[in-house]
Write a structure and sequence with these properties.
Helices cover about 55% and strands about 5% of the residues. The protein contains 7 helices and 3 strands.
């Protein structure tokens, strides 16, 4: 959910970046993407994400809770045991560990999350939603998914949404996300 501009370097001409023995030359059925193609794909994906986030942030539900704080509640709502370690939660967010710690302080002060020493390692911290946090996440979440549909449905038909999800799932699986 970061709003930072992508780091895209204008690649050298294709001939300068493609090796002489590209996979297409050795009989591989799927030639590797060029640097230019990968760069353009990344930028398109990033720009789409930024455009979607700009529209979603206009959702009135985020007047009660900033979208980044909602993201913490959402990720906590997906924990099967109800608890997760702070450092594990941080892997799902695009903020630094110190920023997350300060955010958790604010959420705890609002009685939306609670913390405890980690069960297996008392140096670590585990987090969970409070009942109030769960209720707020559900309330914001129900409107939030409707807003996502309002943004995507006019652009992508259901088959295209399935294709896009399959592609992003493939990326996430490869990255271990």
């Amino acid at each position: 959910m970061a709003d930072r501009s992508p780091t895209v370097v204008d690649p050298a001409p294709e001939s300068a970046v493609e090796p002489a023995d590209s996979p297409a030359d050795v009989g591989d059925p799927e030639p590797a993407a060029s640097v230019r193609q990968a760069s353009e794909t990344w930028e398109s994906l990033f720009r789409a994400q930024v455009g979607i986030m700009q529209r979603i942030r206009q959702d009135p539900a985020f007047k009660d809770l900033p979208i980044r704080e909602y993201d913490v509640l959402f990720n906590l709502s997906r924990c099967p045991s109800g608890w997760t370690r702070l450092n594990e939660l941080n892997h799902h967010l695009l903020i630094s560990q110190p920023s997350l710690s300060r955010m958790v302080d604010r959420l705890e002060a609002r009685n939306l999350v609670r913390r405890r020493p980690a069960a297996t390692d008392h140096r670590g911290i585990e987090l969970a939603l409070t009942e109030e946090g769960r209720a707020l996440q559900r309330r914001i979440g129900s409107g939030h998914v409707q807003r996502i549909r309002e943004v995507l449905a006019p652009v992508l038909d259901p088959g295209e949404m399935d294709q896009l999800k399959a592609l992003t799932d493939k990326i996430n699986a490869r990255l271990g996300a």
